[in-house]
TrEMBL record:
Lineage: Bacteria, Candidatus Fischeribacteriota
Keywords, sorted A to Z: Membrane, Transmembrane, Transmembrane helix
Protein name per UniProt: Uncharacterized protein
Lineage: superkingdom: Bacteria
Stretches that traverse the bilayer: 6-23, 54-73, 79-97
Length: 138
């Protein structure tokens, strides 16, 4: 079971890396400032990747819990299942905290656009991002 847990941890870490890279690309391409619709779309793509991977992370965790319940029902000690969940959390939690730094950079980007619709759309994206959805809607 330890190999399975390590695979789940590895997948979770890879998902976090993908999300951080996409957000970092958006920050670098815009220099942290949204000036154009192109910049807004770059930020939107980064947020969408983050939202999708967050949902997939929850699904991954749910699958791990179901597998552990099945293993416990097959005779695995409950302490082993608890240890597996603890290990998953202890390893993925710091990785997710690292990702939060990039999320905060995206959330706190400046908008210096001539078109006020860009700022309004960015604020709408931030509002949607704080809710539960698979991706941003226009």
């Amino acid at each position: 079971m330890i190999v399975t847990v390590l695979i789940f941890i590895g997948v979770a870490i890879i998902m976090h890396i993908i999300s951080v890279r996409k957000m970092n690309e958006a920050i670098n391409e815009t220099n942290g400032i949204i000036r154009t619709y192109h910049h807004l779309n770059v930020v939107k793509e980064a947020i969408n990747v983050n939202m999708k991977l967050a949902i997939l992370y929850m699904v991954l965790f749910g699958i791990l819990v179901v597998l552990l319940i099945i293993k416990v029902m097959d005779g695995m000690p409950m302490t082993g299942a608890a240890l597996a969940l603890f290990l998953f959390g202890v390893i993925t939690f710091p990785v997710s905290l690292h990702g939060k730094k990039y999320e905060n950079k995206i959330r706190n980007m400046k908008v210096e656009a001539d078109d006020p619709q860009i700022a309004a759309k960015y604020q709408d994206y931030l509002k949607q991002w704080s809710g539960a959805a698979f991706q941003l809607r226009d």
